[in-house]
């Protein structure tokens, strides 16, 4: 993957490579890891049902979702946007330390274990002006919140993350997230979307630059999701002294 032009502060970090994840967090001999999954469910009931099994088998702590089939009620720790297009599902008893005072359309966020997670879905029907306005709302909400993870289905195409062509949305996206000193983790050319009209890479993972040393792996998972999107799984090293509850069931 080519690096972004030097004039941009947002660029793929050369330290990241596509890595296969271990079978579970306990396989790590070092510090504990927070394991994150991102997936567009495509409003599919079967995909959301299957997600529960995937989360259990992969020992996921935080699931960052787009186009959920439905929002889940307590006792699930579930935070959603105003339109049922983006959600964050927290597992293993990890507390949510902060959440927005009011919900927003097309994105949700929460501070979990000291990290601010943003889940974003950008519908393809939005015009460029609406796309820019949405990103302005996201960057305004994220400003000053660190460390930061912004992931989702942006419906934006660029050769920078493995697409065959670059479209205007990509430049708007990169210019907006450059304001947050964001780094793109996507690497390689494995499609994250496979549909009747072809395949593409529209599911993207961004983190603030200061968080990159703690990201230990990133991969497009081969697990069957029953959605037309593949899951992305990555791990962040937990540098906090407190011990997080385990997601492993007994």
UniProtKB/TrEMBL annotation:
<dbReference type="InterPro" id="IPR005135">
    <property type="entry name" value="Endo/exonuclease/phosphatase"/>
</dbReference>
<dbReference type="Pfam" id="PF14529">
    <property type="entry name" value="Exo_endo_phos_2"/>
</dbReference>
<dbReference type="GO" id="GO:0003824">
    <property type="term" value="F:catalytic activity"/>
</dbReference>
<feature type="domain" description="Endonuclease/exonuclease/phosphatase">
    <location>
        <begin position="115"/>
        <end position="232"/>
    </location>
</feature>
<dbReference type="InterPro" id="IPR036691">
    <property type="entry name" value="Endo/exonu/phosph_ase_sf"/>
</dbReference>
<protein>
    <recommendedName>
        <fullName>Endonuclease/exonuclease/phosphatase domain-containing protein</fullName>
    </recommendedName>
</protein>
<feature type="region of interest" description="Disordered">
    <location>
        <begin position="1"/>
        <end position="29"/>
    </location>
</feature>
<feature type="compositionally biased region" description="Basic and acidic residues">
    <location>
        <begin position="17"/>
        <end position="29"/>
    </location>
</feature>
